[in-house]
């Protein structure tokens, strides 16, 4: 005669916070927080633009500069019109339409405000200071092209929104493990390939794919772990994940500072993702998810594995069940549309959606604008 047990009771018998659960936290939860932080904050450090840049000049020969007693700074004053929006400093986006060599040959040493002005002809020179060349400076996302960096970010966040829905469906329909494997593999591949992109559209598409994976990178591993942990212990993995995320969000700026190359930074923060793809092979699918999909024997098999690790035993002949809601309609198949079917649930669903939307907007806006605080972007991100 099979012994019927509620899943949570069977999990308690197998050990709901033993060696097995601690290994899950160590191998999945903590790394997922760290890797999510690295991938997420890398997005900002590969599109930084220094404050000081100006039109690239066709510098006359050195002997002519020496004969004219003209320094490079004086040459900039001669070639670049003052910008009233920058307190009269040389313009970053325009130059006088003159030939500098001809001016020096004819002895002209001061700019004439009547000269025609044109946009920068030959690109820009950047004063990086403590920054470095990024995809934004390589593609000159400045002046009349400065909106391109916002488009890159918009694509990334659009991917985040779409990915949270798409991978949520995958995790519920096909299992936690397929969602984890696909999201980590896609983020790894897209992150690596985007590191070598010089075409803006291709780069934006690849960063969109990375953005799609941000939510499953962070949430799927600890959801899988939570489903093997007893209710009283479930705050532990959440706290450890949060601590890991916070620590590595402070590490990422200094990693960027040490590497000082956007391509290498993207590679370095993407490569560790493959570690989770390898480790997940040794982690079983969620037993509670298997039970909801009618795969009872697989769920029992994995619970026995948990019991073996934790040096516990569960009955040989066991039949698992999930606690049922006794209310009318509890066995009805639930869909996404049920969140909006009745006035009360619809109101709560809309309020929750609005609350989360505002929360995410505030968080991501604060993160993005941190780069504009103070003069040291690395310290600003660390403290922010």
From TrEMBL:
Organism listed in the record: Ixodes ricinus (Common tick)
Protein name per its UniProtKB record: Putative transmembrane transport
Keyword Transmembrane helix (UniProt): yes
Compartment(s): Membrane
Cellular component GO terms held in the UniProt record: membrane
PROSITE patterns documented for this protein: MFS
Keywords: Membrane, Transmembrane, Transmembrane helix
UniProt xrefs under SUPFAM superfamilies: MFS general substrate transporter (SSF103473)
Signal peptide positions on this chain: none
Membrane topology: Multi-pass membrane protein
Stretches that traverse the bilayer: 23-47, 150-171, 178-194, 238-256, 262-283, 350-368
One MF term in the entry's GO annotations: transmembrane transporter activity
Keyword hit for Transmembrane helix: yes
Domain of life: Eukaryota
Domain Major facilitator superfamily (MFS) profile: 100-384
UniProt-listed InterPro entries: MFS_dom, MFS_sugar_transport-like, MFS_trans_sf
């Amino acid at each position: 005669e099979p012994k019927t047990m509620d899943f949570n009771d069977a999990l308690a018998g197998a050990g709901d916070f033993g060696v097995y659960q601690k290994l899950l936290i160590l191998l999945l939860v903590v790394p997922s927080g760290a890797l999510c932080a690295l991938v997420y904050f890398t997005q900002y450090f590969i599109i930084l633009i220094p404050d000081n840049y100006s039109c690239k000049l066709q510098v006359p020969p050195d002997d002519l500069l020496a004969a004219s007693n003209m320094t490079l700074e004086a040459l900039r004053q001669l070639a670049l019109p003052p910008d009233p929006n920058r307190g009269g400093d040389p313009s970053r986006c325009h130059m006088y339409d003159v030939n500098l060599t001809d001016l020096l040959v004819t002895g002209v040493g001061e700019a004439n405000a009547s000269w025609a002005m044109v946009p920068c002809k030959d690109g820009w020179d950047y004063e990086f200071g403590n920054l470095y060349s990024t995809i934004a400076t390589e593609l000159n996302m400045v002046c009349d092209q400065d909106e391109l960096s916002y488009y890159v970010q918009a694509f990334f966040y659009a991917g985040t929104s779409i990915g949270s829905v798409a991978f949520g469906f995958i995790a519920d329909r096909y299992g936690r493990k397929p969602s984890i494997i696909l999201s980590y593999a896609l983020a790894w591949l897209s992150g690596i390939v985007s590191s070598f992109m010089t075409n803006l559209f291709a780069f934006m598409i690849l960063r969109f794919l990375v953005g799609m994976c941000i939510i499953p990178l962070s949430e799927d591993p600890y959801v899988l772990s939570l489903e093997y942990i007893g209710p009283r212990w479930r705050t532990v993995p959440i706290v450890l994940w949060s601590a890991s995320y916070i620590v590595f969000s402070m590490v990422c700026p200094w990693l960027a500072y040490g590497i000082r190359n956007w391509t290498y930074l993207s590679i370095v923060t993407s490569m560790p993702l493959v570690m989770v793809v390898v480790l997940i092979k040794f982690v079983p699918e969620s037993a509670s998810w298997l039970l909801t999909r009618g795969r009872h024997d697989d769920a029992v098999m994995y619970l026995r594995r948990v019991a073996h690790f934790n040096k516990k035993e569960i009955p040989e002949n066991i039949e698992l069940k999930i606690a049922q809601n006794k209310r009318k309609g509890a066995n009805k198949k639930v869909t996404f549309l049920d969140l909006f079917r009745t006035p009360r649930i619809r109101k709560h669903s809309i309020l929750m959606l609005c609350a989360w939307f505002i929360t995410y907007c505030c968080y991501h806006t604060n993160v993005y604008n941190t780069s504009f605080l103070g003069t040291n972007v690395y310290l600003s991100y660390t403290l922010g």
